């Protein structure tokens, strides 16, 4: 088993707003091994982006703050690391690409300038060497006419091209982890596939671990080794991609998978999970999914479900996964099946 | 960049023509006979006729306008009625005086205003931010003449740190070359005089620069706050860059466009001649030149003065537009 390079333990990131304290990330734990592709899945506002920004220590503060928990990167807790150390890690050992390629590049500087900057922040190289390396990176991410693109401004490139440039910037210093926050959401489908292929290729060639944040299970199926499902600031299920897609245990994951459109089902209305995500607030008691859950029962209102361990290192935050209630699951599933 | 510059220059032509049309009509918009008004009620009929003859007032308007434009193109701004000398030869020292004052006032305003704005945005809601914005509010609300008088009273009269008026030590005037006195003293290699001339500039520059400074500070702050929230700034941080690079390279350049607009407009306003400030500090600038011409009903000078001020304003706007393009490659015309 390869080593875990990033371990997040019981992370709490809260936002202190005029309307009170909001626990956007409420006790999240997850880990990434070297060279692994891990997906974080969940709908808008479930805390997946905040988790990724917490790793980078890029939570806008105020109002955001990491209240407790540890982010262990190769034995070093990033939550308490010095500013100087964080700057050394960002873009060098852990780098990040964002959802909006259209606005994530500075419009007033050339592509070349922006890649060069990423290299020269971390490496003592001459401008010429940085230039060469930049062109290499652009070629690596599949940009044609790389030398010319170096002198282009972001507005002269298409969305897919810009996202490739973002990846080139992120990969410029050979990071160990690449965090991709919805990297394909703003792109059209054919470009999406190309960008995912590119990330998979870089992951395989350079052994860069990828933490992919997405709401799209299709994307997860394509490239992730392991999936973490998040709901209302918490991890609700974790397991290998195959297991989760084939046999989801948490009712929320089940709902997510049921709401995927299927080719062989003709003229059927697409399934959607009823209700909406509850607004996270302090001191919530009970299961957060209960109001939308088909299997809701009394216990869901009284206790906070823990992450129950299942076979093959799987985890599920549902009382139905509790051994004592295991029978109920089977019964319930049988009911739905009939 | 070249095409943009050419297009922008071509667009100047109609503006300049419009400008000359307006200044041309100033004389003709005087109710009654312009020559009569210029010479006053006691003027004799022959005197009026002579003036009409010499100013060409008895010719048809299109002919007059053609003559006016032809003269302008040859650098002839007309003749002052009061001093009887050509305006083009006597206006330069006034323009130079105003330019010199404006440059120093704007240097003061931009340097302090932009930096105060940046630090306020950087340390939003800190005591510095609070104080800076309080001063900015006071700065824009304060009447300039009051500030000028207070400066004179405190720093010239009470403390005697700076001279209270004039451009140089009038008991020991220097041979002007460019009429930019600081520059002239440097050309003469007379550095003691440079210090004196700079000292003369301090109080009027502060008086004139305070309002632009306050406006620039507020504009910079709000523009910076806007930019600091943007995605590309997050990208720069994610690259691992330090705060200084984030702020002074990426955020400032992006925040600069609205600030530049304000700087351009304010420079134009100051170059138009700040009559109050120039009067209080006995600064012989273009504002005072035109003001005096108005009180003597020296119409050719008023006409030319306004034309020159308008021309300077247009040129400043041109420079600002060219700078936009230099800063932001997305801008198109």
TrEMBL record, chain A:
GO CC entries: plasma membrane
Domain ABC transporter: 6-257
InterPro entries given in the database record: AAA+_ATPase (IPR003593), ABC_Ni/Peptide_Import (IPR050388), ABC_transporter-like_ATP-bd (IPR003439), ABC_transporter-like_CS (IPR017871), Oligopep_ABC_C (IPR013563), P-loop_NTPase (IPR027417)
Pfam families: ABC_tran (PF00005), oligo_HPY (PF08352)
Bilayer topology term: Peripheral membrane protein
Family the UniProt entry places it in: Belongs to the ABC transporter superfamily.
Taxonomy of the source species: Bacteria, Bacillati, Bacillota, Bacilli, Bacillales
Subcellular location: Cell membrane
SUPFAM superfamilies attached to this UniProt entry: P-loop containing nucleoside triphosphate hydrolases
Key words, A-Z: ATP-binding, Cell membrane, Membrane, Nucleotide-binding, Transport
Keyword Transcription in annotation: no
CDD domains: ABC_NikE_OppD_transporters (cd03257)
Provenance organism: Ornithinibacillus caprae
Main location: membrane
Molecular function per GO: ATP binding; ATP hydrolysis activity
Protein name, as recorded: ATP-binding cassette domain-containing protein
BP-aspect Gene Ontology terms: peptide transport
Automatic annotation (TrEMBL), chain B:
Record localization: Cell membrane
Domain of life: Bacteria
Membrane topology category: Multi-pass membrane protein
Protein name according to UniProt: ABC transporter permease subunit
Keyword terms: Cell membrane, Membrane, Transmembrane, Transmembrane helix, Transport
Any one GO cellular component localisation term in the record: plasma membrane
Any matching Pfam family: BPD_transp_1
Segments passing through the bilayer: 9-30, 91-118, 130-149, 201-220, 255-281, 301-324
Gene Ontology biological process terms, A to Z: transmembrane transport
Homology family: Belongs to the binding-protein-dependent transport system permease family.
PROSITE patterns: ABC_TM1
Domain ABC transmembrane type-1 span(s) in chain numbering: 95-324
């Amino acid at each position: 088993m390869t080593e875990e390079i990033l371990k997040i333990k019981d992370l709490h990131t809260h936002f202190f707003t005029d309307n009170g304290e909001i626990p956007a990330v409420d006790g999240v734990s997850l880990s990434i091994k070297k060279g692994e592709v891990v997906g974080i899945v969940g709908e808008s506002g479930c805390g997946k982006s905040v988790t990724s920004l917490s790793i980078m220590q890029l939570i806008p503060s105020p109002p955001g703050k990491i209240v407790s928990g540890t982010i262990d990167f190769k034995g070093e807790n990033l939550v308490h690391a010095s500013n100087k150390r964080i700057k050394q890690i960002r873009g060098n050992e852990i780098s990040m690409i964002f959802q909006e390629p259209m606005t994530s590049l500075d419009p007033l500087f050339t592509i070349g300038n922006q890649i060069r900057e990423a290299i020269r922040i971390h490496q003592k190289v001459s401008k010429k060497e940085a230039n060469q390396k930049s062109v290499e990176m652009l070629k690596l991410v599949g940009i044609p006419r790389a030398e010319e693109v170096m002198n282009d401004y972001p507005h002269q490139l298409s969305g897919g091209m810009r996202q490739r440039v973002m990846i080139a910037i992120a990969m410029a210093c050979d990071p160990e982890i690449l965090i991709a926050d919805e990297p394909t959401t703003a792109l059209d489908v054919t470009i999406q596939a190309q960008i995912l292929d590119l990330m998979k290729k870089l992951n395989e060639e350079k052994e860069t671990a990828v933490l992919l944040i997405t709401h799209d299970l299709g994307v997860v199926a394509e490239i992730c080794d392991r999936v973490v499902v998040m709901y209302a600031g918490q991890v609700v299920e974790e397991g290998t991609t195959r297991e989760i897609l084939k046999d989801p245990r948490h009712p929320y994951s089940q709902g997510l998978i049921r709401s995927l459109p299927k080719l062989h089902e003709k003229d059927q209305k697409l399934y959607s999970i009823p209700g909406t995500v509850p607004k996270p607030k302090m001191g919530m008691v009970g299961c957060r999914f209960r109001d939308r859950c088909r299997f809701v029962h009394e216990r869901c209102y009284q206790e906070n479900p823990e992450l129950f361990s299942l076979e093959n290192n799987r985890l599920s935050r549902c009382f139905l996964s509790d051994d004592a209630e295991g029978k109920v699951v089977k019964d319930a599933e049988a009911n739905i099946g009939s | 960049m070249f095409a943009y510059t050419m297009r922008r220059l071509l667009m100047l032509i109609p503006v300049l023509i419009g400008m000359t049309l307006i200044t041309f009509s100033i004389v003709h918009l005087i109710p009654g006979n312009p020559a009569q008004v210029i010479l006053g009620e006691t003027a004799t009929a022959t005197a009026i006729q002579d003036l009409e003859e010499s100013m060409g007032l008895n010719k048809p308007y299109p002919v007059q306008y053609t003559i006016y434009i032809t003269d302008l193109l040859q650098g002839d701004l007309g003749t002052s009625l009061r001093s009887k000398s050509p305006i083009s030869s006597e206006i330069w020292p006034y323009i130079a005086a105003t330019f010199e004052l404006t440059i120093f006032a704007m240097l003061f305003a931009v340097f302090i205003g932009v930096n105060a704005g940046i630090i306020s945005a950087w340390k939003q809601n800190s005591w510095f931010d609070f104080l800076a914005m309080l001063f900015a509010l006071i700065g824009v609300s304060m009447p300039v003449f009051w500030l000028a008088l207070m400066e004179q009273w405190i720093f010239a009269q009470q403390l005697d740190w700076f001279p209270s008026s004039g451009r140089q030590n009038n008991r020991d005037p220097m041979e002007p070359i460019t009429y930019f006195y600081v520059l002239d003293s440097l050309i003469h290699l007379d550095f003691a005089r440079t210090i004196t001339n700079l000292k003369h500039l301090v109080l009027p520059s502060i008086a004139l620069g305070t309002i632009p400074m306050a406006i620039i500070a507020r504009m910079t702050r709000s523009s910076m706050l806007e930019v600091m929230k943007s995605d590309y700034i997050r990208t720069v941080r994610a690259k691992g860059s330090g705060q200084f690079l984030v702020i002074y390279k990426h955020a400032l350049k992006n925040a600069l466009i609205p600030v530049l607009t304000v700087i351009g407009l304010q420079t134009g306003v100051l170059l138009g001649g700040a009559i109050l400030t120039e009067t209080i500090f006995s600064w012989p600038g273009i504002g005072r030149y035109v003001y005096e011409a108005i009180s003597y009903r020296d119409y050719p000078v008023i006409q030319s003065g306004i034309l020159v001020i308008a021309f300077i304003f247009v040129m400043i706007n041109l420079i600002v537009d060219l700078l936009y393009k230099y800063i932001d490659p997305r801008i198109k015309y």
